[in-house]
Structures are given as C-alpha cells and as structure tokens.
Amino acid sequence: MHSTKITFIGHATLLIEMNGVKILTDPILGKYPRYLFFFRRRWKAGMTLEQLREEQIDAILLSHSHIDHYHVPTLRKLSQDIPFFIPAGYKNRRYVKSAYKHFTDIHELDPWEKEELNGVTITAVPSNHPRKCQGYVIEGPHTLYFPGDTGFFEEINEIPKHFPHIDVIFLPMMPHFRYFRNLNPHIDAPEAVEMVKILKPQKYAIPIHFGFYPEFHPLRIPNKFKELLEEEGLEHLFYLLKNGESLELSNDGA
Predict the structure, then answer these.
(1) 165 lies in which domain range?
(2) Torsion over CA of 231, 233, 235 and 236, rounded to 10 degrees?
(3) Among residues 146, 142, 202, 205, which one has the least CA distance to residue 3?
(4) In angstroms, rounded to a whole number, what is the distance separating the alpha carbons of residues 34 and 73?
C-alpha cells in the first residue's frame, strides 16, 4: 500500500500526501508572479484552484517571501484555518502581513525547530537565499527534503547529520547570470550533483523550480543534471516530474 504521494504542481509548488496528511509547499497557481507580468509561466500549473481546494490541505509550508514562492492571490483563496508554517519573524513583516492575516493558525519556526502534525513531523532547516529563506524536512513513513530556494552552502552538510536517511530531495534549479549569483543564489546542475552526494537520497533526486520563467531551453538544466548524475553512476536517483504528475512511494522499498 502506498503511504506517500508527491504531486508536482509546478515551480516550487508540491502537494505531498503522507499517511493521509496533505502538505502544500510555496503555492503559486497564477500565470505569473505578482507584479511581474512579463514573467508569464511557460507551463500552466498542474492543478486548478478548485482541484486544490478539494484536496482538503492539512498544512502549507512557505519557504520565503519572494513573489515566485509567496503568491498572495493564491494564498487568499485557500481556507484560512489551514496551519500555515513560515520562517520565524515573518508574521510582523509589513510586506507580507496582507497574506498572513488571512490565516488563523500560523506556526513560526526557526531553523531546526520542529512540529508534529497528525504523525508527520515538519522540521525547518537552513537555506542559502535572501528574505530569510528556509527549507523543510518532512518525516513520516518517508523523509523528504524541500529546500525552498537555495544556493550551495556549507551548512548543507549539517542536514544529513540530523537526517541520515532521506528518501527524496527536491532541488530548486535555475539558470543564473554570474552577476546575480551571490545576490540571489540558486543551484545549477553541478551544484545539484554535489548536494546529492552530501544528502545521499535513498530513492530520488527531483529537479524543481525550472521552466517557470521564459527560458529558451527550459529542460536544459534538468537534462544537464541527469547527464552529470550518469557520469557519477547516480542516474538511478534522477526523477523528472511534469506539471500535474504524481509519484507514489511505498513502504516496501519502491
């Protein structure tokens, strides 16, 4: 019997169902991030708002307040009593209060703080990205690592010390110009391979965050990632989800 289901809605939006608990990450269903009308998404979201509402979400995880992850129009249309997990201190930030006021059950977490939700543990973990970004590790019958946004950083080595058995890691990959590399860090394909070597996922390494913006070759980065994994003998870990596609994990090793 399958105990974990991962649905890729698009960009960094995932619907994760683990032992009946449904968790939504960085929800954005619109055609473009708020205010960036020229950045229309290349592929439409894998679920409609109506479909998402029918899922009866149990928790929302927000990694940070960049507008391609923090989408006020989407958040305001979700049920206000959904537990909303955010980085500590976010609730009092002027530019994000408008969305947070919509929710009545807000959980602020510092890195390494954790909470349990119906048998599933959610732990905040560090990331390397502006706006006090943080990732989350979700533990139940399987362990999943969602970084939000991140560039490569030394503290990534601390994560496997806390979580030595991670089943699936999501890798926010994005092409970047050298000028913006330090200002707005994201991982590229070689750095994603280094993260795989450090975190040692037992099942899959799944690229996310690509193809939202008007890239000329939206699959170039995940394809390069796959190629580099093959060179390291790690190609069995690569798994590419299309928008709206689901992956199911079972307890028997599949």
Answers:
(1) 2-250
(2) 180
(3) 142
(4) 8
Positive or negative, the CA dihedral 196, 184, 215, 50 is positive
pLDDT tens figures, 44-91: 776 888 888 888 999 999 986 666 667 677 777 888 899 989 888 765
Instruction: Report the C-alpha dihedral over residues 177, 178, 181, 182, rounded to 10 degrees.
Output: -150
Query: What average pLDDT score do residues 138-158 get?
Result: 89
Give me the number of domains the chain comprises: 1
**In this predicted model, what pLDDT tens digit does every residue of 153-185 receive, in sequence order?**
888 999 999 999 999 999 988 655 444 555 556
Strand order from edge to edge, sheet including 84-87: 106-109, 84-87, 59-61, 21-25, 13-18, 2-10, 246-250
Dist CA 85 CA 59 (whole Å): 7
- Nearest by Cα to 3 from 202, 252, 221: 252
Residue 137 near residue 153 (C-beta atoms within 8 A) = no
Residue 103 CB-density burial (10 A; 0-12 exposed, 13-18 middle, 19+ buried): buried
CATH number at residue 115: 3.60.15.10
